[in-house]
Amino acid sequence: MVPPIPLTRREALEAWSGFASRIPAYAQSRNAINEGHGNVSRLGAAIRFRLITEDEIITETLAGHSFPIAEKWIQEVCWRRYWKGWLEKRPQVWSNWRLQVAKLQHGLPPETLARIDAVAAGRSGVACMDHIARELIETGYLHNHARMWWASFWIHVERLPWELGANFFFRHLLDADPASNTLSWRWVAGLQTPGKTYLVRLSNIRKYAPQLLRGNEARSGRLADDAVTACCVEPTPVPIPQALSPCDTSLPLTTGRIGLWLHPDDLTPEVGPLADLRPVSAAACISDRVYHEIYQLSARRMASLRTMLRDGLTRTAAHYDCPALALEQDDPVAGLCDWAKEQQLSGIVALTPMVGPIHDMLGRLRRELASMGILLTLIRRPSDEVAFSFASAGFFPFWQKMSSHLRQLLPP
Ligand SMILES: Cc1cc2nc3c(=O)[nH]c(=O)nc-3n(C[C@H](O)[C@H](O)[C@H](O)COP(=O)(O)OP(=O)(O)OC[C@H]3O[C@@H](n4cnc5c(N)ncnc54)[C@H](O)[C@@H]3O)c2cc1C
Hints:
Layout: H1 9-19, H2 23-29, H3 44-48, H4 54-64, H5 67-88, H6 91-107, H7 110-120, H8 127-139, H9 144-157, H10 162-172, H11 178-189, H12 202-208, H13 216-220, E1 258-261, E2 281-285, H14 289-293, H15 299-320, E3 324-327, H16 332-342, E4 347-351, H17 357-360, H18 362-371, E5 375-379, H19 382-389, H20 395-409
Parallel strand pairs: 1-2, 1-4, 2-3, 4-5
Flavin-adenine dinucleotide binds next to helix 3, helix 5, helix 9 and helix 11.
């Protein structure tokens, strides 16, 4: 039986400690898709929403394994931070994607929209691709290779707009991450590294996941190695990186009544720069409305978000010894402002939300709090600040800087 995806910190720590001994085999075994996915960690959701931090994983990895043995594993864990840093410096890539999703959903011809629905429902007619689509809907998880193949199938075989494929993933993946998802889809489409597309190959599926093939793939010829050619996705210039948005990296020296805002971009405030905060109250917005109306997240994904937020609130209440409230208002900004007023807060502190849904509401939140005389202080984890600063260009220059930074942290 496939164990459930970890959605609380306790489950994440247990899953992580169960996986740690498999790190030496990870580099060799990670590409295969096995039943049960025992060769990969399935920690994506836990890391994306920070039920467990990359810092914890990397520190514990290096306590048990040498850098060369663990390098591939650490590199993969760092891919998320690379994508995040890249997007932090180019937030318009996220907002343009959201605009395009809305535009395409309303502007494409009905027959294209019908094909989109059929392929996303697992009715493309190519058995292994349909299996992958159904696995995503039924479990909220896909192995990395399945994500790559399916995204390539969508773009280069079905010739459907990458933006709507990325939207399908974003609605269903329990680890859906604005940076990893949007930028991986752009990479498959050939937009992230201009001119370099990722093409799905039947021989590659046969090598890494032969059990997915039912025979009709070879008969249809649609995935044949020489049949898949790059769909010409209209290139857009890769934006020039901007400076990171300014944030604090240490606690504010304030003496008033402070509230801690817990949000899904980082659900472990008790570990890291906010550990010593003394909030009088904590709160998280748990209404589904925004996620339902704007992002049309699947029921499974919304339920997983609620589970993770409630777990975060329970831990927050225990660590900070203060009430931790689940705000149910449909409008999260109004919910946070009402909470601040009721608690007579002079300031709200949070770990910095990263480019994505929470970040999108920061401007309004800041303005409305300021009109009430309440200061919003956002603190970036120092290790994010360092990692993001390396993410100006491609992954390999990033990794050169990141790996030498990590090596310096090792005991002599
Ligand atoms: C089209 C496409 C869309 C994707 N969308 C997402 C997404 O929405 N959210 C998401 O977290 N990942 C996404 N990925 C990246 C990757 O597929 C997943 O992070 C990984 O499969 C998660 O499964 P795992 O935890 O078992 O991985 P493992 O192999 O166990 O990797 C361990 C951890 O390393 C990180 N990681 C590994 N590979 C990548 C990668 N390529 N990019 C970023 N981080 C990585 C993740 O935190 C992962 O949990 C996408 C990849 C593709 C090709």
